Amino acid sequence: MTTENLISEIKKKKSFLCVGLDVDLEKIPSFLLEEEDPIFSFNKAIIDATQQYAVAYKPNTAFYEAYGIKGWKSLEKTINYLNQTYPEIFTIADAKRGDIGNTSSRYAKAFFEDLGFDSVTVAPYMGKDSVEPFLAFENKHTILLALTSNEGAYDFQTKKIAKEEVYKHVLKISKSWKNAQNLMYVIGATKAEYLAEVRKIVPDSFLLVPGVGAQGGSLKEVCKYGMTKDINLLVNSSRGIIYASKEQDFAEAAAGEAKIIQVEMKAILDGIS
Ligand SMILES: O=C(O)c1cc(=O)[nH]c(=O)n1[C@@H]1O[C@H](COP(=O)(O)O)[C@@H](O)[C@H]1O
After folding, report:
1. Going by CA atoms, what residue is nearest to atom 17 of ligand 1?
2. Which of 11, 44, 73, 96 is catalytic?
3. Whole-prediction pTM
4. Which fold has domain 3-272?
5. How buried is residue 34: exposed, middle or buried, by Cβ count under 10 Å (0-12/13-18/19+)?
6. Is 210 in the pocket of ligand 1 (CB under 6 A)?
């Protein structure tokens, strides 16, 4: 999907919500465990119920890899279902990959070609040649970890090298890489106050902002510092939406949570437009 398509979907739906599909069999309604593929059944119901409020879905691959081959099959069925039923929706494989170039090119093929995701999250630690193989794919997006939502982000990402924080080096240096137009960045919602600095370096890049909901980040703060005239934000919530209920009404309850966020997003967008 092109960036222009994503922006037009955001404007049409008045939403920049990304729903995180982080499925844990211990947290889903127990009656689903009798289904042949409980993870896919859960995802399908959640997607169908929430798609009117969301522009993106982000399965975190850890939650699928944890169940071995069966989990990977559920991931494949989920991305196929999204691509076939809701082709206008942006898909993110949250896999946090990155390795020497030869290996990164295999990761890129796995997520972009074999599974058909629009984007994948990538760690910048191994540098340019570990990221460029992902960037080589046209109309596919590489979402580079810049300033993450967790406490450990302060261990390295905010430390200074040559008087500047590491996350700023990541933003600046990555802009010079081949096909940098295919880059997006992860900035945690729990660090919204940093977004003003981030926007000085990457004024127009899309930012994936996880950390509202269960991690307590504020949507208003994220928008205040991170939103551009074309919005250029995808705000993710996983547990706060998908585990709203463990009963028969789990999908409706998830839709209710997604709607609350979308209504807040619409109000913000109406305020700026
Ligand atoms: O790359 C990510 O999506 C990510 C980066 C980050 O800095 N913080 C973060 O929470 N995430 C992911 O975003 C999701 C957040 O889930 P909830 O806390 O349940 O909303 C999880 O899949 C995390 O792995």
Report:
1. 238
2. 96
3. 0.98
4. TIM Barrel (3.20.20)
5. exposed
6. yes
